[in-house]
Amino acid sequence: MEVLLKVLTVGGAAYAALLGLVFVLQGHLVYFPDLGRQIVQTPKDAGLAYEAVWLTTEDGVRIEAWYIPAPAARGAALLAHGNAGNISHRVDYAPMFHRLGYSLLLFEYRGYGRSEGRPSEEGTYADARAAWRHLVAERGFPPERIVLVGESLGGAVVARLAADERPGALVLASSFVSVPELAAELYPWLPARWLARYRYDALEALGRVSSPVLIAHSRQDDIVPFRHGERLFAAVKGPKAFLELAGGHNDGFLFSREAWREALGGFLAQHLPAGAMSPAPR
């Protein structure tokens, strides 16, 4: 009996220590800025002209962004990427939006790529707001001509932005309901909901979004289960559409790129104003 008690005591202490470690270091499970700090390509490599700009957030952090203009643009897309890599890994989005007639702003989170600072939940929200202000105030795009696009963690970022502003449309690709919900599924042996210091509650934000919403998700997603996309879709109160992708979490768009472009183009044509914008002076 004494041996059993000692084993249980040591095991309990070890488990408690593990919980404490996870609580303190969970930022390393949410953000992966070091996976691809190097700039591997630019829109120029895709044959597109672009402008590198530096934005200053409301808390004084300088973040990098790339603006890729489309001729006679119908509007602009603002892309928030996932929790790994940087904007140079999202250049493939540029030709797609270019063909659809939308300029694209790829913005970098703080602590990622060449941007200043360290990533945090409130910080990523502030980064997205800085990108939004750039499109509206500096580029002259009316909110109803802007489509917010978020992949994975970026979906929660732009969902919050869409709840606070009123963009022309919101697109969530391979996004999750919230960090506590996803963590509970990925780490069932931990009290993840209780430990979570990060929320990224896309489900709550969607309840406050009035813009049309397109949800894209794959049944083969190996990180964010398909049911997350279904729950997000069910939470949308206004106009909405669902696109089922193919492939894993990080390659779903590669397996269904043409279907993705056609579905996105049809959705934007239905919900955003038709016709090209007059160029706004800067």
UniProtKB/TrEMBL annotation:
Domain AB hydrolase-1: from-to ranges: 78-220
Keywords: Hydrolase, Membrane, Transmembrane, Transmembrane helix
InterPro entries linked to this entry: AB_hydrolase_1, AB_hydrolase_fold
Keyword Membrane in record: yes
Transmembrane segments: 12-32
Domain of life, source organism: Bacteria
Keyword Metal-binding belongs to the record: no
A single MF term (Gene Ontology): hydrolase activity
Full protein name: Alpha/beta hydrolase
Species of provenance: Crenobacter cavernae
